[in-house]
């Protein structure tokens, strides 16, 4: 009886982990850049395959599509999850996939848009507050890295306050990973050398 329950559960868990990782690993920034005929985002700016770097190409359509695709791949499997544990796994692995993409030899983006999609799917208000925090800091400082860190910290506070413990812990892990991926930016910020977008 126990085996009949446990085995399908572990199979489902493994399926969610693998599916979320591979979906998260799809490098939409690279794919969309090729479709729109703009330079590969790994070869200019920060070298990061994400929406922020695509924006440096000046192609607004490619930027918006990359942002939506990265955001969506974080949210979709979380929305479909039937429990908090599965939602936590799906969201966490989507961000891990984006950051360590098997399609890019385990190199990837910094995970901000994907993490924001996950936050929205875990708890819509946490996602919205995170997006607002990102926008406010970006408008004030014109620095994507600082805005991203503010969004992650704000989102985590909301998740800790309003979601089940497993989601809150997953949120802390996601935020920590995204912030660590910005370590070079943090160093540049401390030195006053961080790139900013022109007003």
TrEMBL record:
Molecular function terms, GO-annotated: glycerol-3-phosphate O-acyltransferase activity
Pathway: Lipid metabolism; phospholipid metabolism
Source taxon at top rank: Bacteria
Membrane topology, record value: Multi-pass membrane protein
Function recorded in the entry: Catalyzes the transfer of an acyl group from acyl-phosphate (acyl-PO(4)) to glycerol-3-phosphate (G3P) to form lysophosphatidic acid (LPA). This enzyme utilizes acyl-phosphate as fatty acyl donor, but not acyl-CoA or acyl-ACP.
Entry similarity comment: Belongs to the PlsY family.
Main subcellular localisation: membrane
Quaternary structure annotation from Swiss-Prot or TrEMBL: Probably interacts with PlsX.
Key words, A-Z: Acyltransferase, Cell membrane, Lipid biosynthesis, Lipid metabolism, Membrane, Phospholipid biosynthesis, Phospholipid metabolism, Transferase, Transmembrane, Transmembrane helix
Transmembrane regions listed in the UniProt entry: 9-36, 85-104, 116-140, 146-179
UniProt-annotated location(s): Cell membrane
Leading EC class: transferase
Taxonomy of the source species: Bacteria, Pseudomonadati, Pseudomonadota, Gammaproteobacteria, Candidatus Tethybacterales
Reactions performed catalytically: an acyl phosphate + sn-glycerol 3-phosphate = a 1-acyl-sn-glycero-3-phosphate + phosphate
Protein's name according to its UniProt entry: Glycerol-3-phosphate acyltransferase
InterPro entries listed in its UniProt record: G3P_acylTferase_PlsY
Originating species: Candidatus Doriopsillibacter californiensis
The protein's Enzyme Commission number: 2.3.1.275
């Amino acid at each position: 009886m126990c085996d009949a329950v446990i085995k399908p559960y572990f199979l489902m868990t493994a399926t969610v982990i693998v599916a979320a990782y591979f979906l998260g690993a799809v490098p939409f920034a690279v794919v969309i850049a090729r479709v729109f005929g703009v330079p590969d985002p790994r070869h200019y700016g920060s070298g990061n395959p994400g929406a922020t770097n695509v924006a440096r190409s000046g192609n607004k359509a490619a930027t918006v599509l990359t942002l939506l695709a990265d955001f969506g791949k974080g949210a979709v499997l979380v929305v479909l999850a039937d429990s908090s544990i599965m939602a936590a796994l799906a969201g966490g692995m989507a961000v891990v996939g984006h950051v360590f993409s098997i399609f890019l030899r385990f190199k990837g983006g910094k995970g901000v848009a994907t993490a924001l999609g996950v936050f929205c799917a875990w708890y819509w208000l946490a996602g919205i507050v995170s997006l607002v925090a990102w926008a406010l800091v970006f408008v004030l400082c014109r620095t994507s890295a600082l805005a991203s860190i503010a969004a992650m910290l704000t989102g985590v506070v909301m998740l800790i306050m309003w979601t089940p413990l497993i989601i809150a812990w997953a949120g802390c892990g996601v935020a920590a990973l995204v912030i660590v991926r910005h370590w070079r930016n943090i160093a540049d910020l401390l030195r006053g050398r961080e790139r900013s977008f022109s007003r």
